[in-house]
TrEMBL record:
<feature type="compositionally biased region" description="Polar residues">
    <location>
        <begin position="374"/>
        <end position="388"/>
    </location>
</feature>
<feature type="region of interest" description="Disordered">
    <location>
        <begin position="369"/>
        <end position="409"/>
    </location>
</feature>
<dbReference type="InterPro" id="IPR050738">
    <property type="entry name" value="Sulfatase"/>
</dbReference>
<feature type="compositionally biased region" description="Acidic residues">
    <location>
        <begin position="392"/>
        <end position="405"/>
    </location>
</feature>
<protein>
    <submittedName>
        <fullName>Sulfatase</fullName>
    </submittedName>
</protein>
<feature type="domain" description="Sulfatase N-terminal">
    <location>
        <begin position="21"/>
        <end position="352"/>
    </location>
</feature>
<comment type="similarity">
    <text>Belongs to the sulfatase family.</text>
</comment>
<dbReference type="InterPro" id="IPR000917">
    <property type="entry name" value="Sulfatase_N"/>
</dbReference>
<dbReference type="Pfam" id="PF00884">
    <property type="entry name" value="Sulfatase"/>
</dbReference>
<dbReference type="GO" id="GO:0004065">
    <property type="term" value="F:arylsulfatase activity"/>
</dbReference>
<dbReference type="InterPro" id="IPR017850">
    <property type="entry name" value="Alkaline_phosphatase_core_sf"/>
</dbReference>
Length: 528
């Protein structure tokens, strides 16, 4: 395969030598920034590290929500959740795939069975090839049961591990495959590779991994890679048994969960490496840009829970964003950016005009190192605390053309209980919480209640001391600057939500029911 460009590439390097014909966007569910080595040198993610070494790392990249359906409208449609139709989908949005497809770019999207990224919410729109792999997960009682019961799957992994390891050694293979591909990682790999091989024109390929989402069930070899090598699959059994039974999560269980999580990160990292190998084999790696991001983070009891419940602290909002563009090396960019920058950046790289409806700004200037290249910001060094920021005295910039100037806004909706299920799917499902972040400060407000929070991340990277309780002059000036941003965002969502509800009432019809297979997959992910 060769890549015959039909679009005018915008990613010429400063010397004019390098061009981009294709873009691969890799998104990883529940991937927090300090889980990968570009943000924490103690982590093990060599493939992602290589991407960072040759490209650009955005030290302060933030998701726009704590859940996939709250974050992905920004990643694939450059707009806030609820902003278009009042729900969590992108049905009425100008999606990245639609804009690129209309410009003659081939588009392929492969989602590893996240039920929120399906046709029910409009995500296939604009993709020439799209496969969510949801049906394959819910196609049998057996597979549904195992996906929804990680302890049982862990038992199977444990019981078969010695036999599998022996078989792998006899064959000369490595035991890099889980007993069951519950995350659909290899399905996604195969589909993405076939798309690359079969496409003879400029392309956009989106791949979404689920391995780092609960339940963490990595192949045994990756557990050994990220641990001391003595303990292994039984960690999976012990940790999943305690959490599934609702038992107290002590330090041992928490440590095991962190280890399993890091093992799944390494598993994804290896899969990304194989995806890059397929680009090499197709002869298109040299003119293909690769962007990698987490859609949101993961909590390990920093604020009292596991997984990703409706909160807006850094362990859930600070995510990796790494871009490897042929011929461009932006170094490390320490200005704050939101994931709504992804669509305009991809369009810019492919020489396609961005939609006027998009909220984000292209990061191509930073990729060209028009922005100042900086050393890495300091990080805390373990997945039980969120990454920190840099200089305490840093002030936000005032350059209207700087995409890192405006605060990054993130939202969630919280019911009466933090752990309430199912996940809220409209503004009427609970209180609206909105946060605004600049380089150093996080301001969070429950706009339906009286709760406000303010955190100075350089001095409090895990956001434990709420400075809004007794604000001084400095804190008050920050609140005065960030509160109007939150007020404007909340007003926008309220207006769009009210309009959507009125339109639905006029039609006198309910939302289309989620089909049985999709509900089964959402339940398997813990969204009952």
């Amino acid at each position: 395969m060769t890549s015959d460009s039909t679009t005018a590439s915008a990613a010429d390097a400063p010397d004019g030598d390098a061009t981009v014909s294709n873009v691969v966007l890799v998104t990883v569910d529940s991937l927090r920034a300090d889980a990968v080595s570009p943000y924490d040198s103690e982590r093990r993610s060599p493939v992602i590290d290589d991407l960072a070494d040759g490209g650009t790392v955005f030290d302060r990249a933030f998701a726009t929500g704590n859940w996939t359906p709250f974050s992905f409208p920004s990643i694939l449609a450059s707009e806030p959740v609820f902003a278009r139709s009042g729900d969590i989908g992108v049905d009425e949005s100008d999606t990245l795939a639609e804009v690129l497809s209309e410009a003659g770019v081939a588009t392929g999207g492969f989602n590893a069975a996240n039920g929120f990224l399906t046709d029910h919410w409009g995500y296939p729109d604009g993709f020439d090839e799209f496969e969510p792999f949801v049906t394959s997960v819910g196609s049998s009682v057996y597979s549904r049961y195992l996906a929804a019961h990680p302890t049982v799957e862990a038992w199977i992994q444990l019981a078969t591990s010695p036999v599998r390891r022996l078989g792998s050694k006899l064959r000369g293979d490595s035991d890099d495959r889980p007993f069951l591909d519950a995350s659909r990682m290899f399905d996604v790999e195969d589909a993405a590779t076939a798309f690359v091989d079969d496409t003879d024109e400029p392309f956009f390929l989106w791949v979404h991994y689920m391995d780092t989402h609960t339940p963490y069930v990595p192949a045994p070899r990756y557990i050994r890679e990220v641990s001391d090598g003595i303990v292994g699959t039984h960690q999976m059994l012990h940790a999943h048994a305690r959490t599934s039974l609702g038992l107290e999560v002590g330090e041992r269980t928490l440590r095991e969960l962190r280890t399993l999580y890091q093992a799944t990160v390494r598993q994804v990292d290896a899969s990304v490496g194989r995806l890059l190998d397929s680009l090499d084999a197709a002869g298109v790696r040299d003119d293909t840009a690769v962007l990698l991001a987490g859609d949101h983070g993961e909590e390990f009891q920093e604020h009292g829970h596991l997984a990703h419940y409706p909160k807006l602290y850094d362990e859930l909002i600070h995510v990796p964003l790494v871009a490897d563009v042929p011929g461009l090396d932006g170094g490390r960019v320490d200005g704050h950016v939101g994931l709504d920058a992804v669509p305009p950046t991809v369009a810019d790289l492919l020489g396609v005009e961005a939609s006027e409806k998009w909220h984000g700004e292209s990061l191509l200037p930073a990729l060209r190192d028009d922005a100042e290249s900086t050393e890495s910001t300091d990080s805390t060094g373990s997945p039980d605390s969120a990454t920190g920021s840099a200089d305490e005295s840093a002030e936000p910039t005032d350059d209207p053309d700087d995409p890192t100037d405006d605060p990054v806004v993130s939202v969630t909706v919280r019911g009466e209980d933090v752990t309430q299920q199912p996940i809220p799917r409209s503004l009427s499902d609970g209180d609206l919480l909105v946060s605004a972040r600049d380089d150093d400060w996080t301001y969070i407000e429950n706009v339906d209640g009286d709760a406000v929070e303010l955190y100075h991340r350089p001095s409090d990277p895990t956001q434990q001391e709420n400075l809004a309780v007794d604000p001084g002059e400095r804190e008050r000036s920050v609140i005065d600057r960030l509160k109007p941003v939150i007020d404007d965002h909340a007003a926008l969502l309220r207006e769009r939500g009210a309009a959507a509800e009125a339109a639905a009432a006029e039609r006198d019809e309910d939302d289309e029911e989620v089909d049985e297979d999709l509900e089964a997959r959402l339940e398997a992910l813990g969204y009952k």
